[in-house]
Amino acid sequence: MSRTCLALQHLSFEDLGSIEPVLRTMGFTIQYRQAGVDDLHSAQAQAEWRDADLVVVLGGPIGVYEADRYPFIHDELARIRERLGSGKPLIGICLGAQMIAAASGQRVYPGPAKEIGYKPLRLTAAGQHSPLAALAACGHEVLHWHGDTFDLPPGSELLASTDLVTNQVFSIGPAVLGLQCHLEAQPRDLERWLIGHTAELSAAGIDLAQLRADNQRIGDQLVCAAQQVWLNWLMGALPA
C-alpha cells in the first residue's frame, strides 16, 4: 500500500530522523515542505495537508506566539487546526507539539528554564501502556531541546513528564501525538544541531563536551527504542 507523509520543517537540519526509515519500511513516500518558504495558504497546500496519510510538524527555534515576526505561523496553525478536525494521523515534535496546543486554543509560553540535553522521561500510568513503553530499552532517556512549554489540548492524555517540564508527551485519541522532546534525533546529526543552535547553546551555558558524551553513550540505544515507539504508534494510528 502506498502512503504519503507530509513533513513540515522549520530548520533544514531538524528532519524526520529516526522516523524516516520506519516510514519507508511501511511504504510511505515522504514530502518535505519548508515553513516560511513553501506556501501554506493556497488550495493546493490545503489539499496536501488534507490528503496526506500522515503529517509531521517538526521543531524549530521560534515561538508560536511570534506570528507578528513570522506571519506564516497563522497559516500553519490553520492547517494544523484542519488536520486535527479531520481525525487523520498527526505528529508534532517540539515546536510542532506547541503548534498543536496553540491550534487547539491552548497557551504556549516560556518554560521555567531551557531544557537542553539528555535526561529521562517519567511516564504516566497512561504512558506506561502506550507506545512510549518501548523507551524502557534506553532507560527512557531522550534528547530535550526547548525553552517553551504549553497547556495540554482539550481531550488529550498526558503520557510523560520531566522534573522540569510537566507536559512532555501527550496524545489525543489514537491519531495525534505531541512530543516536546526530540525522540526523532539521531546521534550522527548532533554536530549539525550544535552548529545551527550555537547562539542558544552559548546563552544557556550548555556544556558541549557533556552533551557529546551523553550522545555517544545513549544515542544508538535511543534510536532503536524510538523506532519501536514510532512503529507501535503508527500501527495504532493508521487505518488497517
Notes on the structure:
The protein is globular. The protein has helices at 19-25, 43-51, 72-86, 95-103, 125-128, 190-196, 198-204, 208-237; strands spanning 3-9, 28-34, 54-57, 90-93, 108-120, 122-123, 141-150, 157-161, 169-172, 176-179. The mean pLDDT is 97. An eight-stranded mixed sheet has the order 2-1-3-4-10-9-8-6, sandwiched between helices. A two-stranded antiparallel ribbon has the order 5-7. With 240 residues, it is an alpha/beta fold. The chain starts with a strand and ends with a helix. 37% of the residues lie in helices and 25% in strands.
Main attributes?
37% helix, 240 residues, two-stranded antiparallel sheet, 25% strand, eight-stranded mixed sheet, alpha/beta, single chain
In short:
It contains eight helices and ten strands. The chain has 240 residues and is of the alpha/beta class. Helix 1 (19-25) packs parallel to helix 8 (208-237) and helix 3 (72-86) crosses helix 4 (95-103).
Shape descriptor reads globular
The fraction of residues assigned to DSSP E strands is 25-35%
Distance between the termini: 11 Å
Q: Please describe the biggest sheet, giving its number of strands, its sense, and whether it closes into a barrel.
A: 8 strands, mixed
How many individual helices?
8
Give the number of DSSP strands. 10
Q: Can you list the strand order of the major beta sheet?
A: 2-1-3-4-10-9-8-6
Radius of gyration: 17 Å
Give the topology string: H per helix, E per strand.
Answer: EHEHEHEHEEHEEEEHHH
- Helical content stands at 25-40%
Query: Strand pairing plus helix content: what structural class?
Result: alpha/beta
Determine the oligomeric state from the structure.
Answer: single chain
Low-confidence stretches: none
Give the mean pLDDT: 97
